[in-house]
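Researcher: Structure for this, please.
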Amino acid sequence: MIVAAHAMAMGFTLHVDDAVDRDALATIMEHIEHDLRWVDETFSTFKDDSCVSRIGRGETTVEECPPAVAQVLDLCADYRDATGGAFDAIRPDGRIDPTGIVKTWAMERVRWRLDSLPARGWMWGCAGDATVSGLGPDDGRVWRVGIAHPEHRFESVGTVALGGRRTAIATSGTSEHGEHIWRTEGGTSGYVQASVVGNDLVECDAWATAIVADGERAALAAQERGMDVLALRMREGRVVADRSPGWTWAA
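Model: Predicted structure, token format:
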């Protein structure tokens, strides 16, 4: 069963591996959409009255905002330190911009609602990022997620399997939103897109962004932390892929 939600100017999709009562599922999705809209109203850099926008203009402080704002900014600071500055929620103009992980943080924030579903498994995804529960190689079944071509969003460069120890994938790059990642000073990145597979969706998202921003240095650091990496360059109109040793395509 597949159901969709729309919030944060994006489409979210839930795949459920079971026949679930439609009324119960509709109720859960209604709550999820409400949660996602709240995140958008709080964190959007495009809404003038959001907490993040008001902080940027000096009209309020982090302490005066809902506690979730401090939580997200603390996460951003943690990933800035972990990536050596390759992931950063401070834009070059000095304004705070936690957009790099807000979407996946919002997806994980509603995970407890999805876990209440009486289903063998589910996959929750949005714009190249996905997290799964249930099913895996031991069950003889896995979830499959396609990775978009960096220049042609409706084409795929391949499909990966999620399940078991690998429950999350995040992709950062140009296929969905164009150039929106600022490169690190002195960085050597020629990557236009990076996908990271692991067991924590927010962590995968932060490192995917860091790899696009900083290149091979960040890609190697992500692998040292147990994640698998696919980083893409464009060369004379062709996709050139750098893959970590553990990266495997779905059969």
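Researcher: Any notable elements?
Model: The first strand starts at residue 2 and ends at 7. The mean pLDDT is 89.
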